[in-house]
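Reading a protein record of the kind used here takes little practice once its layout is understood. Each number in the token line that follows is a code from a learned vocabulary of backbone shapes. One such record is shown here in full, so that the layout can be seen directly:
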Amino acid sequence: MFIILNAFRPSQCKQMLSDAGYGITTRVLDASRCGVPQKRQRFFLVGKLGERDGFLDEALTSNLSNKQMTVRDYLGDTLNTEFYYMHPRSYNRRAVFSIDEPAATIRGINRPIRRIICGIMRTRQIYAMVFVL
């Protein structure tokens, strides 16, 4: 079994792996609906040799929350504030956030874009996400 995050050309990747005999499940998941207080959507492509397509659909969607997790949901009132400042990537974006919403995606600066799997996929950063299925 393998997991690919944020495939650059998902249709090409999916077709190549299907032709090799892998069953494929694809899904875009929002971290704030998976128990993380961050508004962050990520594309997942999961494959397993000899499985049918969509083999993990039920497992990936059955435990998603109907409500986005907020900073307050996660930390409670330990911050002793209603708002916080996060330096924006550009001045066209806001910098003050409420603890009653998911946190914005935290990004680094001046990172190179990495090429993975023969140029089929590119990612800005690699994160480990654990899903208990």
In short: The first helix runs from residue 10 to 19. Helices lie at 10-19, 57-61, 71-75.
